[in-house]
Amino acid sequence: MSLEQEMQQIGQQAREASTMLARATTQMKNAALEAMASEIEKQQDALMAANKIDMDNGEARGLNPALLDRLALNEERIAGMVEGLRQMIALPDPIGAITDLNYRPSGIQVGKMRVPLGVVGIIYESRPNVTADAAGLCLKSGNAAILRGGSEALNSNQAIAKCIQTGLEVAGLPSNAVQVFKTTDREMVSELARSSQYVDVIIPRGGKGLIERVAEAARVPVIKHLHGICHVYIDDEADASKAVSIAFNAKTQRYGTCNTMETLLVAKSVAGEILPPLAAQYLEKGVELRGCAETMKIVPQATAATDEDWAAEYLAPILSIRVVDDVDAAMQHIRQYGSGHTESIITENWTTARRFLTEVDASSVMVNASTRFADGFEYGLGAEIGISTDKFHARGPVGLEGLTSQKYVVLGDGHIRG
Amino acid sequence: MSLEQEMQQIGQQAREASTMLARATTQMKNAALEAMASEIEKQQDALMAANKIDMDNGEARGLNPALLDRLALNEERIAGMVEGLRQMIALPDPIGAITDLNYRPSGIQVGKMRVPLGVVGIIYESRPNVTADAAGLCLKSGNAAILRGGSEALNSNQAIAKCIQTGLEVAGLPSNAVQVFKTTDREMVSELARSSQYVDVIIPRGGKGLIERVAEAARVPVIKHLHGICHVYIDDEADASKAVSIAFNAKTQRYGTCNTMETLLVAKSVAGEILPPLAAQYLEKGVELRGCAETMKIVPQATAATDEDWAAEYLAPILSIRVVDDVDAAMQHIRQYGSGHTESIITENWTTARRFLTEVDASSVMVNASTRFADGFEYGLGAEIGISTDKFHARGPVGLEGLTSQKYVVLGDGHIRG
Fold this sequence. Notes:
The structure is a homodimer.
Chain A: H1 3-22, H2 26-42, H3 44-60, H4 65-71, H5 75-90, E1 98-103, E2 109-116, E3 119-124, H6 129-140, E4 144-148, H7 154-170, E5 178-180, H8 187-194, E6 201-205, H9 208-217, E7 230-234, H10 240-252, E8 261-267, H11 268-285, E9 288-291, H12 293-298, E10 303-304, H13 307-310, E11 318-324, H14 327-337, E12 342-346, H15 350-359, E13 364-369, E14 386-388, E15 396-398, E16 404-415
Parallel strand pairs in A: 3-4, 3-6, 4-5, 7-8, 7-12, 8-11, 9-10, 9-11, 12-13
Antiparallel strand pairs in A: 1-2, 2-16, 14-15
Helix pairs in contact in A: 2-5, 2-7, 3-7, 5-6, 6-7, 8-9, 10-11
């Protein structure tokens, strides 16, 4: 079977399943989530055995330790998948909700009903737990899912997929509601991204290279989780102790996440007061500092930051620091180098905070809070399938609602247009 | 200047203007709308003169009468543009609205703020009034606009653009907030659709050919207003008099609109009662009827409908009629041939109505109302820039809100993540 034929078959099965899912009751979807969770619990040994094959292959192929770590399944991670699915049962079902149902002068009632997108394609790398997460979120939001994991996790993903499909069948839903590609051919990614007749949205989860490759090939709308070059700006009217604690937390609470601060901006008039104690904390923690000329005068341990530094997503214990004139200069820097992910200002000044909130163009804009808060769980979405840096459709953490659309409903009683 | 260079210049100017528009107050935007309206009123003679050149050129080039009619400006149409701009002043400003601002367990407050998309590209054909409509909607929603009208309306569009830019300047807003291409090169459409660094969304308004050409070239998200193959299904529990009046209105109130019914579906058990009087009305009005075998037995004047008829958007006094077994067969026909625009059921049965509302996948789904209601004014959006048949971002009539995005705002008081 050619890639195109395989895509066609999987696509048609997904479309068919999606019409059944769109009318599945909340109760049925929750029953399927519970059955999926139970089956994963029951098949723990089979999952570990499948994962062992992937790990052995990975080691033989010389995958780096970070990749191997992400690939590994253990009891704790399997329990995490199970817990994740069970938490989705508790989330409110977004489908069918009717909002803004109002009478119009003509006498008709017009409102909006939340509906599934249809078929969601998810392309991801290494971490096999995404298979269960993505399947659960798509199911709860009434969408059929076509999943395409990384070749290094093929056996693990197939084993998880089997549990998911068993769960769907137990609950009386079509097992094709969640399909996982067996082909590891790289060309399949482009094939999926081109199949606008079968797929309503593509969500790539992975490195910048994967996302750009998908966006390039896509004929289907893409929800992109691109890079996060997040800034904290310490204003001249910042509370110094809040500033130090937030700037330290935003960089060091975790290094490898997209909402980690990569560049610290400090107002000139407070740099001399705030940078020395803050730099001391960073250095003690082992964070490498790179700064502008002004920063290097105040923090002698900092090396010179280049233009590449301002544009870098380090995902590592490295921080670039720039001293700026004021909030306008800070916002100008963010406009030039920011990736539209998350930006935070530390200030006690009402007007400055209000300007920053209004004028900064990013998926999350914060006042006096750590950029690390930017995620679906912290925002109360219950779960997330990614963080969108697009402005279109879904922006910021994408939970169940990002996987839905709305249609207009019109209720009349014989109404005709005059 | 090459097309690419021209696009770059216009694009950069639009981006710059868009950051100023994003922070423009409601008062400033409304003042600009009023100034634009006044200037158009004042320049009525100049607009008519410019339009005369286009009309003369069009006649010389042998444009068909329907196109010439759409191209023509007269006092009434100019007054319509002015009125349209003034109505936008009264619409609520969507920008800056914060919703769902709630405390989270961590102590931060998280909400969503409505923000402009940035730069909106609009590609349209013949009707010069779209220039004023689109400019006004983009301005009110805080977006910079790049407009690309049809070559046949070049002089009219430029004259309207001049009024709009004067209005922007009078109100202290950058005149580059609305730019109209002077190039009529067809390649410019693709250039615009590819310029994802300068444009946030493309809205093509015109025939299917234009829209498909834009979608094909696009690297920028597109809000597509594709064709409308709308159905009315008369259920076996329909009220006969409502059924006849709605089915007649949905077809004949206007023939050339995308929300006009193109195919009538009738339940077998009531076809014999309802079709004869309804067909008599259609025939008296001059509507050509094409039907399935069952229809032809009941309505001898109907000719045989082919598979192409079920898939046709006539935009003309032609109607295809199919007798179906029940609501399931009707929904199956709609799934197969519908374009996802607007679908209506006529029934007094609660359960059947509820099923149709839930299961039919279209931008508008109606019960006991004419499909002709599907537009932005009837739905209370105040104005519309098109009707989207996409599921992504904006679906159905697109008003000001469809031209916006939302960003998350996070308010803290020194909060860090634990």
